[in-house]
Every structure is written in C-alpha cells, then in structure tokens.
Amino acid sequence: DQQVKQNSPSLSVQEGRISILNCDYTNSMFDYFLWYKKYPAEGPTFLISISSIKDKNEDGRFTVFLNKSAKHLSLHIVPSQPGDSAVYFCAASPYSGGGADGLTFGKGTHLIIQP
Amino acid sequence: KAGVTQTPRYLIKTRGQQVTLSCSPISGHRSVSWYQQTPGQGLQFLFEYFSETQRNKGNFPGRFSGRQFSNSRSEMNVSTLELGDSALYLCASSFSVPGTNYGYTFGSGTRLTVV
To answer: Among A109, B18, B48, B108, which has the minimal tally of Cβ within 10 Å of its Cβ?
Structure first.
C-alpha cells in the first residue's frame, strides 16, 4: 500500500507560468514533508520541506503548502523556468526531522517546462 | 566540500551473482541511508546506518545487507542477484543524529543491471 502518492506521473507547464505539483499521503503519523528534485543520472536534490506545525513554507520561487486535514501537500513553482524540468519527488517522515525510519517517497512527477 | 561519492557508477552482473556497492558520505556526516529507485516503485528505503549501527531497515529481503565502517563509509551487498534487482541504488548522508532535523544529501547513485 503506497503511503505517499503522486498521482500525476507527468506535468507540462509553459515557461513563466505556475507549476503545481501535488502529493497525498495516508499515514497520519507523518509529521515532516520534503520535496526533492532529480535530474537524469544524478541523485535527488533537496528543495524544500515543511513541518506539520506549519501550513506553508516559502523559499524563493518555491512554496510548499500542507493541508493536514486533507493529508495533502503541494509544491508551487513560480515562475517556472526551463531548468525546472526534472522529476520531483515528495517524501514524508514520521519524525519532525527524524531520520531513523527513513523517508517514504512518492513515485515522482516528471515536470516539463515548455518554452 | 566533496559530495556523497558512490562507486561504481555503473555495474552489470548476471543472475545469481552477488554485488557490493560503496558509499563515501560527506566529511563529518555520520548517518548513511540507502535507497533503491526503480521505474515502477519509485524510491524505496533500504536501510540506515549511524555510527556503524543499523538503525532501521526497509521492507527488503535478507539478500540485501549493509554495513558502515568507523570512518562512516558504507557498503551495501546484494547476494543471489535477481533480474528485479536492476535499479539505481542511491546513498544519502546526513550530519543529523536520528531523531533530529533532516539534511540528506544524495549521491549520484550506482546503476545496477542484472542480466
């Protein structure tokens, strides 16, 4: 049973527009959420995270929103740039920063930014 | 500052063989985690080591094992390889003590192909 779901395998967005990537989770014990970006032949790169005590975290062009009651989070990228084309993974942990149990990842969304 | 180094980058093995993959974490990082990435399952947690001790293990058969040395370098071993073990194996290191904030940095991975 998949505990972290990214239901859109791919998403195409025009350059300059907003990209919205969605993630749903089922485990109510998850307390900390992260987004990673991955280019082919490279490891995932940490983008942004959010703790369950917050509903929004912003870092430059990237904003993550968390709706705990709906068990849903989203990553907004605005404006979208060609270099944003990559696979984006949503990840969750039961600890507010804990590493012992590892991260549970979604299967990823391939974001394609069109010129 | 050198990143997480994984060797080898690519590996081809035949069914039934065993394989050992290596990961050198960022200097000063004591936590090392391993993940398997496949197209169908996404990123799945294998195990995490901290100070030479396995802290947690994901849902993988006993053919998958690992260890960490006193210098924090880690190896993972897969015995009796199966075709389904073909995947990208990613190592991530962190300065954090398990239970504290994340700061995972991933390596570029080892692409294992089993034929």
So the answer is: B18
